[in-house]
Amino acid sequence: MALREFMAQQLPIFEQKMYEQVEKLTIPKNLKASMLYSLKAGGKRIRPLFVLAVLDLFKKPLAPGYDVGAALEMTHTYSLIHDDLPSMDDDDLRRGKPTNHIVFGEALAVLAGDALNTLSFGVLVNTEVTAEKKVELIQLFHQASGAEGMVGGQVLDIEGEEKQLTLAELEEVHVNKTGALLRFGIEAGAVLADATAEERAALNEYAYHIGLAFQIKDDILDVEGTSEELGKTAGKDEASDKSTYPALLTLEGAHEKLQEHYNLAVAALETVSKEATLLKEIAHYIVHRNK
């Protein structure tokens, strides 16, 4: 099945199940509104899509992937809410809409992010899989989303502002800040699908390279795109003097590095299956997207 058709079929099911996880909560009205505002703001849904695509590759039921994908998207969304705050990246536009703190105020935005983060673990706990898989998923998730992953990467990103990072240092930032949650989507799919150790190793290799490709493309789009195309403020990296792939490698060099990581990602997939069509198409989409 082609990626576009798969997304048209599966993402509405996934999104409805994710929204229901928040809508059923007995919580303050404004908190629920703030949480749903950012969850429903759209986005590429790449992270949950990875979970579902790996399950599809191994011809496994997609049902547990909806829950795991919802937990993943909740944590990704919380990270965006916090990232947009004045104390972080200080942005007032996300996915073409006012950022959460612009609409609901800083205090409620912080708390909505906190609520989505903690709810994500509750969703994982209630996923209908074996206890062994549940424990492994929670272990992988806390590593990917916390100090050893996304949060640690965010700290490295802040510490790297207004100073010149080496390529190795820049990759360390983004393997954690951006790549960790992308990688979890693929690892989680492999856990749910009972992939072998060899298959999981190859999928992790794919995840590593496609995670870096994702960030390199983001850096390129920040230079080449407009705010209207991106749905967020374009040119912020250069304005804030951040180390980026175009800044380190030139724009042409960044394009070359993007292609290199894409090629390595696809090569890793070939060792798992010649039929990994969806994962290949997701990789192609990541490097050719315009937002």
From TrEMBL:
Cofactor: Mg(2+)
Gene Ontology annotations for the cellular component aspect, listed alphabetically: cytoplasm
Ranges that cross the membrane: none
Enzyme class: transferase
EC numbers: 2.5.1.10
SUPFAM superfamilies according to UniProt: Terpenoid synthases
GO BP annotation list: terpenoid biosynthetic process
Pfam family, one: polyprenyl_synt
UniProt KW keywords: Isoprene biosynthesis, Magnesium, Metal-binding, Transferase
Single Gene Ontology MF annotation: (2E,6E)-farnesyl diphosphate synthase activity
Top-level division of the source organism's lineage: Bacteria
InterPro entries from the UniProt entry: Isoprenoid_synthase_dom_sf (IPR008949), Polyprenyl_synt (IPR000092), Polyprenyl_synt_CS (IPR033749), Prenyl_diphosphate_synthase (IPR053378)
Catalytic activity: isopentenyl diphosphate + (2E)-geranyl diphosphate = (2E,6E)-farnesyl diphosphate + diphosphate
Record family assignment: Belongs to the FPP/GGPP synthase family.
Name recorded for this polypeptide: Farnesyl diphosphate synthase
